Fold this protein.
Amino acid sequence: MQPPNYVPHNNTSDEQLSARQQLYSLFESRPFDDATLLTNFGLFARSSALAKIFFL
C-alpha cells in the first residue's frame, strides 16, 4: 500500500498569483536598502500593525 500523497490546499487564482508576484517585484525594486527599511520601520508599516506591535 502506498502512503497517502498530501498536497497543500490552495484556492489562489492565477490573477492573485500574478498580483502577488507584481507586489514582490515592486518591493524588490524599491529605491532604498533593507537597512533603511528596518531602521525606519514605523514609516513604512500600517498604523494598525504598529499598534499591535506596541501594545502586545
Observations:
- The mean pLDDT is 89.
- Residues 14-28 form the longest helix (15 residues).
- The chain has four helices and no strands.
- The CA atoms of residues 18 and 24 lie 10 Å apart.
